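Researcher: Structure for this, please.
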Amino acid sequence: MEKVDSKVNLSAASDIIAALRIILRSQVITPDLETQYSRTCFPNTYHPVTNESISAVVTERQEQLDSVLREISGLETVMDDIKNLHQQLVKQKDNIIQSMTFHKGIGSALWRLPSETLSQIFYDCLPEDEYLLSPASRQAPMLLTRICRPWREVAVGMPSLWCRLHVRIDVKRAWQPEYEYEEDEVDWSDWEEPDAEASNSDWQRAAFCYDSWLKRSRGRPLSLVLECYHSIMLLRGLLQPYINQISTLSIHFRRGARRTQLLLEDVPALHELVLVGMNYSELQTITQSISQLPSTMRSLDIMALGSDIPLNSVSPVWANLTHVAITLCHPDAFFRLLHLCPNLCSLTVRACFYSQQTLGPFTHTNIQSLYIIDTPNIRCHLSRLFNALSLPKLCKFEALLAYEYRPWPHEELKDLLVRSKCPLECLTFSGQVTVTDVPRAEYVALIPSLDVVVYPTDL
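Model: Predicted structure, token format:
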């Protein structure tokens, strides 16, 4: 713990304050500015005006003005000194409080906690929302480094606190966090930067902080959320030293993002990928990059791209996936996806079926969770899909009903459950649906242990 700052002599400061109080009780002597001329609006015969008399008055007023200006200047200097003294006293107060808090804390049970216990508490303090995990955040883990030196040492020495990071780089606005903070709210000194001249620009400072964060992960698998603008090359350069650590990658493409495929090149440990908001012109390029992802891939979420991905173009990846979220525009694409993903356990589909197609029977033996988000005119196509599909391992089914004007194909879904002989545990309907829309008793009659949940929501 640092010693209390003793630069300010409290006794001397008290003497200064006492003297100032005495001085301030006195009143400023205001000179009499009245003259024989100021009592009348115009010169008259009783007070004849001469150049010499007027010149004497003006000279006297100039001397008085100069004197007042000197006094104002001197007072302003004294006020600056008083302000500086006040700042020193406030700083000293903060140091005293910090010292007092530190010594009080030594006797608390929290201070005596083993580092292992403190580490677990710190980990539980991490926000679930990865958008809050940035160097500018006022939450854990950054907050934990600013409480006291022992806590900082524990936090900085915990690689698990630094394995998730939200990176936002816009070359035109070099670094601006998702949430706005005033400049003095970000404690850049926390990073113990060795060379102050290396961070003169916002970009250099941001890159330094992001790099320092990632260094603290010490080789552990990384989960990153990237917001990409024009700065793909800068972002790739920032991540290059840690490319072998990246396990989970969520990429949000913003305005003007180009050469996006660079972020997916040579990521040998990638396990999970989420892509959001890509321009249609970049879709073909990114599709090729997806096809070259490593065999470590297990989860792919491309539902938010808003386009029907050519499934065959990324076929090398499908076979290894266990979790997929995707938008599909044709009913046969649903079965083609299941065929390409034999190991699939969880599937989320935004179904935008626009054409009627004849579907032959298809069984997928591994899917345990199916989540369908419907769109206009899909429910007639879902009837055909349910009639052809069998899912013998299905444990959880959820449907988000976004539109009211067509009934949900409950009969076809019940037939699917009977045909599949699946161990369904939970059946959920949400969105534009009411309790009376769902034949709960009929579903429970098929599977007595089934939990049927109806959750109406405004979309």
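Researcher: Any notable elements?
Model: The longest strand covers residues 246-253. Confidence is low (pLDDT under 50) at residues 1-6, 173-200.
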